[in-house]
Amino acid sequence: MITFGAGITAGCAAHFVNQIDCVDLAAQAPEIASYFTPDNEEIQKNKKFSFHLDDARHFIRNASQHYSIIVSDATHPGFMIPGCSSQLSSTN
């Protein structure tokens, strides 16, 4: 999962997958998510969950495993611009 934010999406996703690797550039994301534990179902305590402080493209390119699903939970307006998906395409 790309971006962690408050962890709400990760908390929901944990019901449907065996593992969640969440990548975020914001070191403060886990602290922020701790304020939302009722909403994110305490995802940071879930054994399925791993937080990685890294650039998502760097993390995915260097991962030792392949992912069946990659979820981008980024809501920054820059991600709404046409062509932004090329940031994570296999052509780059």
Structure characterization notes:
The two termini are 19 Å apart. With 92 residues, the protein is an alpha+beta fold. It contains 4 helices and 2 strands, in the order αβααβα. It has a two-stranded parallel ribbon with strand order 1-2. The chain has one domain. Helix content is 25%, strand content 11%.
Overall helicity:
25-40%
From the alpha-carbon coordinates, what is the Rg to the nearest angstrom? 13 Å
Number of helices: 4
Elements, N to C (H/E): HEHHEH
Distance between the termini: 19 Å
Main sheet characteristics: 2 strands, parallel
Number of domains: 1
Mean pLDDT: 86
Query: Poorly predicted ranges (pLDDT <50, ≥5 residues)?
Result: none
Mass-distribution shape: globular
* Helix vs. strand class: alpha+beta
- Order of strands across the widest beta sheet? 1-2
Number of strands: 2
Beta fraction of the residues? 5-15%
Break the fold down into its secondary structure elements and pairings.
Layout (H helix, E strand, L loop, with lengths): L7 H6 L6 E5 L4 H6 L2 H4 L8 E5 L2 H7 L30
